[in-house]
Amino acid sequence: MEKVLPVPSLSERSGDRPRAKRRFSRRLVIGVLVLLALLLVSTRVPTLYAVLRPLPPHATTALSRCRSLSLAPGPPADFHKRKVSDRFVHGTKPYLLKNGRIWTGLENGTEVVHADILLNKGIIESIGHIGHLQLKNYKDDVVTVDLKGAWVTPGIVDLHSHLGVSSSPHLLGASDGNSRHGPILPWLRALDALNTHDAAYELSVAGGVTTALVLPGSANAIGGQGFTIKLRKTAERTPTSMLLEPPYQINSSFPDHSGPLRWRQMKHACGENPSQVYGNTRMDTIWAFRDAYNTARKIRESQDAYCADAFAGNWDALKDKSYPEDLQWEALVDVLRGRVKVQVHCYETVDIDDLVRISNEFEFPIAAFHHAHEAYLVPDTLKKAYDHPPAIAMFATHSRYKREAYRGSEFAPRILAEHGIPVVMKSDHPVTDSRYLLYQAQLAYVYGLPENLAIASIISTPAEVMGMDHRIGYVRKGWDADLVVWDSHPLALGATPKQVFIDGIPQLDSPHFVQKPASFQRTPRVPNFDKEAADTVKYEGLPPLVPAKSSSGPVIFTDVKRVFMRTGRAVREVYTAQDAEMGAVIVENGTVTCSGAYTSCVTPNLLADAEVVNVKGGSISPGFTSFGSNLGLGEIGAEPSTMDGYVFDPLVQKVPAILGGDGAIIRAVDGLTFGTRNALLAYRGGVTKGITAPAHRGFYAGLGTSFFTGAMNRLEPGAILQEVTAVHITVRPYSAAVPSISTQIATLRRMLLHPVDGDAGEWFRGVGKGRVTLVVETDSADIIATLITLKKEVEKAYDSTVKMTIAGALEAHLLAKEIAEAGVGIIQVPSQPFPAAWEMRRILPGLPLTEQSSIAVLLAHNVTVGVGSVQPYDVRNLPFEVAWVALDAGGEISKEDAIALGSTNVEVLLGGDIEADGLHDMVVTEGGDILDMQSKVVAVISPTRQLVDML
Ligand SMILES: *[C@@H]1O[C@H](CO)[C@@H](O)[C@H](O)[C@H]1NC(C)=O
Ligand SMILES: *[C@@H]1O[C@H](CO)[C@@H](O)[C@H](O)[C@H]1NC(C)=O
Ligand SMILES: *[C@@H]1O[C@H](CO)[C@@H](O)[C@H](O)[C@H]1NC(C)=O
Ligand SMILES: *[C@@H]1O[C@H](CO)[C@@H](O)[C@H](O)[C@H]1NC(C)=O
């Protein structure tokens, strides 16, 4: 410690007065001279001037505001010394989770520790072996849970969500995601629209999502500010109480904060979306960006000039000036000061290139490009972005829905990772259901993203990209107590939370779970796609998808573990290799001639001229059948010129007389497009058959058709499997496209009981007589009940049994008994339900929220059930989806029945010619069976075409 020395007073020191007097006068002269000199130079040396003149009244504020310009966002230095979280809810008990297998997020996502975790006061208090001694201060308060080795990860972090702003179910009154008031709106804030009643909060938490960055939509070049929320309910019930470290601007126009700043988030978008909304071109959008940033730059420069004067004490120059600021532009000025995480929706090379140039012109970093379907083609451009390469936030297999997504690839995550670019998987909820964000990481892993990065892609990496990694995204002492306890390895298909903690609070009241096979606790094996990934880059996203070769000669598949075959309507496992037995399947001219033990199938003669393919423990199974999307009716959904288009709807418009007026009925077969990328990818995924109805917007669809997904044109033998399958209509709530539900039902009743003249009448009479299947697309239990009543009415009139299938059917579980009794079939689309609209709000969510899934409930009532896909690019994943449905049923659904859910059942329910022999292709998988994520489809056995396609 320094001592404070007493300063002698003037009178004490002035013992020698005359000498002192002389010195004093000399000092006076010098002092006066100095003062004069000071006065002379004071106009030029403001600091000195300032010393002598009082500061103007606004100086203190101005100086503190100017000083705050040099502050950077981030947590305070002592943040991790906190003992209690700012989000701690009083009364929350400490939790001791014993014996977890913990993925911590550390060591580049490779660290897994077997340990206990103590959660207290909303934070992770300790990790390791936690004994009684450590707990003695908590008395009996601690809730102890033995995890018995279960996998634990930090909570899932969704970097791109519209949860709460584009609400579910979608209702006009809660559709606040996009403003249409201009391309540049940096002053809008997603927080101001956050609906606290979105049905997805609870569902997404049940999928392990604990934190989401809620962004405005992509209709604008600059759509506004995003906000990070935690998804749990709060006692306050307000949007504000859900926020995680909100920036200080939320309740102050120009906060003059002296402490560390908090990160802000800003949404940008380029390409098709902002263009289409404002009738712009890409050139207009990019100019809008530059113009906006130029405005912000000018404000920043005048602030800097003002502050230069203020720091220099040049108050005269600032006499009539206030600090330059503008409430509309302050957020964009903050971008230029590097205090905002800029989240950019951008797809294509041209858009990415544009934004990278803008980031360099105005000198601001981009946190991430979102969607960015072509980012994997331009890694070097990403590396040229200002300050650091942006992360890429992607979908796994969600592509080709519009032109700028056409070159999207399932290999993009691995390719970007190989270039060292941070990879994030995101939901864009409700575009994809954030409850299943983990599934996107699983798919990225299947297609080659390394395990550590795949798990990090939905946890630590997004936490870092949004500037929150000091408290979420890791299991570390002092981090937020957001954890998920899983029922399997997180990358195993169907992994489901057994419990989710947010701020130390368990979120699942009475979670349901099933026992998973032991193999699901290990890192799943995945196929090798090195060649496919290399080809994807070589062909700039459009690698050839046609089979490498086709063979009509004999082919011997060896090391076959299981063979599943169709037997009429069912699927049966006809061969299972015993322990060390080598299984074999012989195919000649596209027909399986023997399946069983190698020794019993393979003869020396055969070996002489057969091709031998080792499938390494693979299997043979029936090809899957797609329904529910417009697969086969065109290439890019949002590009009319690539699509068949929509039929006339006699309920809302006049059908031209030349077409037959109200008696016309359209056949989907006439609008088929072959060789589309979605169809060929479905084929390579084991989905060999597509059944599709004519594309329609309203009530009236037409006649469905069944086709071979691997065909390149309609005239190829076997391209059309069945010209007409069933009659399709849709009953949906009242909208611009359709009159009331009751009007639609009345129309259907009349069409069935009093068929019109013409083709349509004939087909509807066929339905009435029970010769033709009627497929009605609807989800509402009320509409399904009405259709059951109508079915009985029609059966009475015709003295028949009407074949009726409901497609969609997300509320069907509410009427399982009645549906079974009425002999109605169900195709659930999609396999994992989501309450996107009011008419499907009563979904049965399944594990961990309910014991059973809707599909399991229907099957338990002996209803024939099939599974469909909403989007044509999802069809390739159909085998994974039925496998997942079976896993959720915890062994109640066998592999055979699961395969039937995606093949024979779908065909039966859609009027498919199920009994016809020789129509049904078989799929050969390597490394596992068709339901395993580790397997890869390597060949298709085609009896119609009498050959084997080698993929
Ligand atoms: C992180 O992991 C990836 C994939 O396993 C690896 O390629 C990369 O080099 C690792 N990075 C560091 C810094 O270790
Ligand atoms: C304003 O918001 C901040 C969080 O950004 C919060 O800490 C503060 O208490 C709020 N002030 C008022 C007056 O509500
Ligand atoms: C395969 O087809 C060819 C040509 O049609 C025929 O010559 C051959 O006998 C067939 N092989 C078998 C095993 O049926
Ligand atoms: C379903 O079918 C099985 C076997 O045919 C039968 O045992 C069971 O009772 C049926 N369940 C219901 C709910 O009808």
UniProtKB/TrEMBL annotation:
InterPro entries: Amidohydro-rel, DHOase/Allantoinase_Hydrolase, Metal-dep_hydrolase_composite, Metal_Hydrolase. Coiled coil: none annotated. Residues 151-504 form the Amidohydrolase-related domain. This is Carbohydrate esterase family 9 protein. Pfam families: Amidohydro_1.
